[in-house]
C-alpha cells in the first residue's frame, strides 16, 4: 500500500471512529456533519431491524430518535477493515454495543443490554474530508459457521 493510500485509509478509519464516538456522546451536530450533504446525492441508512432510510432528513431524524431514547450507549469496534477505491471507502466492522434505556424506579440508568451488530459504512471523499454515504447494520443472530462446524462434525 502506498503512503498516500495508507494516509487515506487512516483518515477513513478516523472518520469511522468519530462517527461512533459522536453516537456515544449523543452529539447530534457532529453526527450531522459526518454525513454527506445533499449536494452529493441521497444518503442511506439501515439500522438493525429497520427499513432502508433515504435522504438526510430521514437518516438524521433516525439518529435524533435513537439518541433521545438511549440514555447510555458504548461501542467496542472489532474486525475493522478499510477498503479504498478512488474517492470511495468501505469500512466493515463488528459493533459490540452496550446500551441502556431510560431509568426505572428512581435508578440512575435503565438496564444495560448487549448487542452484536455487523456494520458496513461507505464513505466518500469530499473537500471537507471523508463523509458517510451509507450505513448498514445487521444484528448477529447465529454463531459463525466455524463454530457450528466444530459442534456438528460430519
Quickly give the CATH architecture of one domain: Roll
What separation lies between the terminal Cα atoms? 41 Å
Element-by-element helix/strand order: HHEEHEEEEH
* CATH topology title of one domain: Nuclear Transport Factor 2, Chain: A
Computed over alpha carbons, the radius of gyration is: 17 Å
Mean pLDDT: 89
Fraction of residues in β-strands: 35-45%
Shape, please? globular
The main sheet comes to:
6 strands, mixed
Regions with little confidence, pLDDT below 50 for 5+ residues:
none
**DSSP helix count?**
4
Organism: Streptomyces ficellus
InterPro entries: NTF2-like_dom_sf (IPR032710), SnoaL-like (IPR037401)
Protein name: DUF4440 domain-containing protein
Please describe what this structure looks like.
- The chain is of the alpha+beta class and 154 residues long.
- 32% of the residues lie in helices and 38% in strands.
- Helix 1 (3-25) packs antiparallel against helix 2.
- The mean pLDDT is 89.
Amino acid at each position: 500500500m502506498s503512503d498516500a493510500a495508507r494516509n487515506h485509509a487512516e483518515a477513513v478509519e478516523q472518520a469511522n471512529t468519530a462517527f461512533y464516538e459522536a453516537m456515544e456522546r449523543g452529539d447530534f451536530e457532529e453526527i450531522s456533519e459526518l454525513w454527506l450533504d445533499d449536494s452529493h446525492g441521497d444518503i442511506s441508512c439501515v439500522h438493525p431491524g429497520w427499513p432502508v432510510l433515504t435522504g438526510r432528513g430521514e437518516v438524521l431524524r433516525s439518529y435524533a430518535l435513537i439518541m433521545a431514547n438511549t440514555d447510555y450507549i458504548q461501542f467496542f469496534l472489532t474486525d475493522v477493515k478499510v477498503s479504498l477505491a478512488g474517492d470511495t471507502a468501505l469500512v466493515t466492522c463488528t459493533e459490540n454495543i452496550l446500551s441502556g434505556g431510560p431509568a426505572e424506579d428512581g435508578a440512575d440508568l435503565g438496564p444495560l443490554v448487549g448487542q452484536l451488530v455487523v456494520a458496513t459504512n461507505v464513505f466518500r471523499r469530499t473537500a471537507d474530508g471523508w463523509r458517510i454515504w451509507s450505513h448498514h447494520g445487521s444484528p448477529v443472530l447465529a454463531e459463525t459457521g466455524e463454530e457450528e462446524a466444530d459442534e456438528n462434525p460430519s
